[in-house]
Structure formats: C-alpha cells, structure tokens
Amino acid sequence: MRGLMRRLLLSITLAMSMLGLSASTALAAAPEGAQKAPLFGPNVFASGITCESGAAPTPKKFGFVVLDTPGNEMTLTGEVALKRAASNTTYGVFDAQDVGGLCSSFFAGEITTNKKGNGNLHFTGERIPGSTKFLVIMFNLANSAENYGSPAVELD
C-alpha cells in the first residue's frame, strides 16, 4: 500500500507540473476563513487541472471540499465530502499547495465510499510556508483513471 501511495503522489506531482503551472504575479488579498469548493470528476486530469486554478469544471459535481488555515500559518485543515462516486471504493486523498508556481502535494488520507458512493474525510496537514492556493485531488486506488479534484481556493 505504501508503494502505491508513493506512486500516486509522484503521479500527482508529475501531472500537475506538466500541465503548465504558472504563478500569478498580482495576487489580491486572500479571503479570510474557510473556503468551500465543489469536487469535479470523474477524470479531472482529462478535463484539465493546474495547481494555480485547480480542477476545471465538469458537467457533474461529486460533492465538495472545505479548506482552511485556522489562524495558524503552519496548518491546513480540510473536510472532503465525496458524493455519487463508485460504491464501496477506496480513494486516496491528496492536498496540493501552490507556492509561487511550484506545486507540492501531500497524502491526506483515504475515503471508502458506502453503497451509495458517498464518503467523508477530515484531515489536518502541514501548510507549506508561502503557499497561497490549495486544492484536493482524489484517486480511485484500484483504478487511478477515476479521479476527482476541486478548484483551487486562496486562503490567508
């Protein structure tokens, strides 16, 4: 399982870097507090995804994420609610952070869906100093071609 997680993390990092990541030179002030974003899928890498903008919208939404840096420049918290995905399936969840055009992603945990394809995850992880945009990416651990992602949210 550990080898699979490493391969998925490497795949995420490589895919994100190859999709033309770029840094915004004029960032507006980030909104304060938690930010909610939809989950798009079921194949966000085919639809388009970058660390700066996150997943491109798809016709269907598959739940949502709520991300926050709760009064601490060193911590990122997240709530992931996956809806209407494959039933009884386990997904690896990663948070991706944009630091001046460089994308780093971290394993946040796993979600196993119920018979209706719904599952939830709460995670707390490290915030990279200087990171400004955050998103969530998820892979079906049995079939990495099924993947979901959120648009990037800007946090203070």
Question: What does this entry look like structurally?
Answer:
The longest helix has 17 residues. This protein has 156 residues and is mostly beta strands. The N and C termini lie far apart (34 Å). The strands form three sheets. Strands 6, 7, 9, 10 and 11 form a five-stranded antiparallel sheet that branches. About 8% of the residues have low confidence. The protein contains two helices and eleven strands.
Concise overview:
By secondary structure, this protein is mainly β. It has 2 helices and 11 strands. The chain has helices at residues 2-18, 44-47; strands spanning 35-40, 49-50, 54-55, 61-68, 75-82, 90-99, 102-112, 119-126, 133-140, 147-149, 153-154.
Shape: globular
Beta-strand percentage range: 35-45%
Helix percentage? 10-25%
- N- to C-terminal distance: 34 Å
Specify the oligomeric state. Answer: single chain
Question: What is the H/E order?
Answer: HEHEEEEEEEEEE
Low-confidence stretches: 17-28
Q: Specify the number of helices.
A: 2
**DSSP strand tally:** 11
Q: What does the largest sheet look like?
A: 5 strands, antiparallel
What is the fold's blueprint, element by element?
Layout: H1 2-18, E1 35-40, H2 44-47, E2 49-50, E3 54-55, E4 61-68, E5 75-82, E6 90-99, E7 102-112, E8 119-126, E9 133-140, E10 147-149, E11 153-154
Antiparallel strand pairs: 1-4, 2-3, 4-5, 5-8, 6-7, 6-9, 9-10, 9-11
Describe this protein with a few key phrases.
156 residues, mainly beta, five-stranded antiparallel β-sheet, four-stranded antiparallel β-sheet, 11 strands
